[in-house]
Write a structure and sequence with these properties.
The relative contact order is 0.17. This protein has an eight-stranded parallel β-barrel with strand order 1-2-3-4-5-8-10-11, surrounded by ten helices. A three-stranded mixed beta sheet has the order 7-6-9, with no helix packed on it. It is an alpha/beta fold. It has one domain: TIM Barrel (Alpha-Beta Barrel), CATH 3.20.20. Helix 2 packs across helix 12, helix 5 packs parallel to helix 6 and helix 7 packs across helix 8. It is globular. The protein is 48% helix and 16% strand.
Length: 316
């Protein structure tokens, strides 16, 4: 098998009202944990790479490790650029074999976002690569993405139709109340499902039937992982994420891709903190990295069952 694009993944997801998990990767253990979890559930998966991950691990290494994961698991994998800030970052990953890119021009004014996104779409589509773009801005911090609550803006449904029509993108990341990072809410979690419904309905009415919607900043920030971190020397106070039931509801309203990065980081950190607390004499990286990999696999299997609903979603 080889890498696939997300087109058929999303078509199947939309029709069956589930979402494909898009998990951020940085190293071998994360890739193994995610893909082995998906293999256990017969699930397709999107492995996504931030600009921070590109700087940390380089696209050569990441692509080679993902190719190895395909050989090991034989599942459908798309390799995706997450929050590409400019044309050059898109060009770099396309030249290195990525099958999907997200261009994030949401920090620009609307007309500039349209123009830059349209240029990316023309380049990527010529090379068989699909494009996700963002309209509206999520609050929070994740790698090179840093948006204050004051500057966050929700996606306008009418503007979404215009944006999709003028750019030719393949999927749209929307802002309806999710947030990057581990501290998503100070009070009760809220997502604007009326806005999400309006976006989907208006796209359908405009001829974009079954158009895939994407949720960024959708980690649940599992309280158990926070507890393990804090009981083993961590200090994560007030961390809160998106409840699973809200994410499941979103998958019935056109959301075909749900991004999770913070939950991966928290699981790996919880495992490693506990390992060193239990075994202060340990120094072999294979020991604590194996624990991190196992925690990540368990996390992914639980996400597929409780949030995504995408078990048995392989294309073949």
């Amino acid at each position: 098998m080889a890498l696939v694009t997300t087109k058929e993944m999303f078509k199947k997801a939309y029709e069956n009202k589930y979402a494909i998990g898009a998990f951020n990767i940085n190293n071998m253990e994360i890739i193994q944990g995610v893909t082995r979890g998906c293999k256990a559930k017969n699930s397709s998966v999107i492995l996504q790479v931030s600009t921070g991950a590109l700087k940390y691990a380089h696209p050569y290494y990441l692509k080679a490790m993902v190719d190895a994961a395909i050989r090991e698991t034989n599942i459908d994998i798309a390799l995706h650029l997450d929050h590409g800030p400019d044309f050059e970052s898109v060009k770099t990953v396309v030249e290195n074999g990525f099958t999907s890119v997200m261009f994030d021009g949401s920090h620009h004014d609307y007309e500039t976002n349209v123009k830059l996104t349209k240029d990316v779409v023309a380049y990527a589509h010529e090379r068989g690569v699909v494009v996700e773009a963002e309209l509206g801005q999520l609050a929070g911090i994740e790698d090179d993405v840093n948006v204050s609550a004051e500057n966050a803006t929700f996606t306008d449904p009418d503007q979404a139709v215009d944006f999709v029509s003028r750019t030719g993108i393949d999927s749209l990341a929307v802002a309806i109340g999710t947030s990057h990072g581990a501290y998503k809410f100070k009070g009760e979690a809220r997502l604007d499902f009326e806005r999400l419904t309006a976006i989907t309905q208006k796209l359908t009415a405009a001829g974009f039937e079954k158009f895939p919607i994407v949720l960024h900043g959708a980690s649940s920030v599992d309280p158990e992982m926070i507890r393990i971190c804090n009981e083993n020397g961590g200090s994560l106070k007030g961390a809160a994420g998106i409840p699973a039931e809200m994410l499941r509801r979103a998958t019935t309203l056109g959301v075909c891709k749900i991004n999770m990065d913070t939950d991966i980081r928290l699981s790996a950190t919880a495992a490693i903190r506990k390992f060193f607390n239990d075994k202060p004499e340990a120094f072999d990286p294979r020991g604590y990295l194996t624990e991190a990999r196992d925690y990540i696999q368990t996390l992914v299997e639980n996400k597929i069952d409780d949030v995504l609903g995408c078990a048995n979603s392989l294309l073949g």
